Amino acid sequence: MIALINIVFLMLVFFLVAAAVAPPLDRGVALVQADRLDGRAPPDAAVILADGTMIYRGAEITSGGYLAARLTETREDTGLRLVPDRDLPAAQLLDIATDLRRAGAAEIWIVTERGLQ
């Protein structure tokens, strides 16, 4: 039990020192608040609904069709952006990403919501 207390104490000291080393922000800096911005998918992203349906530019499309459309638009290797629904099962998202990689996608980006509160 004594060893555990020593470890906890050392961790406490470490974090206190680490916090003191980090320089604080200048008091005159006012950070930007982005909590009221409208969140929307990038225009070149495919939205994947909870049932696995892929929507690109307002129309239903297959993963191969999305890759083909993006390659004809850019004519170079470009990253594909996927915006999955929160309720889409992770296994289904991985299946879609795997299909896109097998079809020749160079990069796949998953667009998510970051909650800073």
* Helix content estimate: 25-40%
Q: What kind of assembly state do the chains in view correspond to?
A: single chain
Strand order of the largest sheet: 3-2-1-4-5
Q: How much is the radius of gyration in Å?
A: 22 Å
Number of strands: 5
Brief summary:
This protein has 117 residues and is an alpha/beta fold. It contains 3 helices and 5 strands.
Describe the structure.
The protein has a 5-stranded mixed sheet with strand order 3-2-1-4-5, covered by helices on one side. It starts with a helix and ends in a 7-residue tail after the last strand. The chain is built from 3 helices and 5 strands, in the order αβββαβαβ. Strand 1 and strand 2 (54-56) form a beta hairpin. With 117 residues, the chain is an alpha/beta fold. The protein is elongated, with a radius of gyration of 22 Å. Helix content is 39%, strand content 17%.
Question: Which tags fit this structure?
Answer:
alpha/beta; 117 residues; single chain; elongated
Which SSEs are present, and which pair or pack?
Layout: H1 2-21, E1 45-48, E2 54-56, E3 59-61, H2 63-74, E4 79-84, H3 90-103, E5 107-110
Parallel strand pairs: 1-4, 4-5
Antiparallel strand pairs: 1-2, 2-3
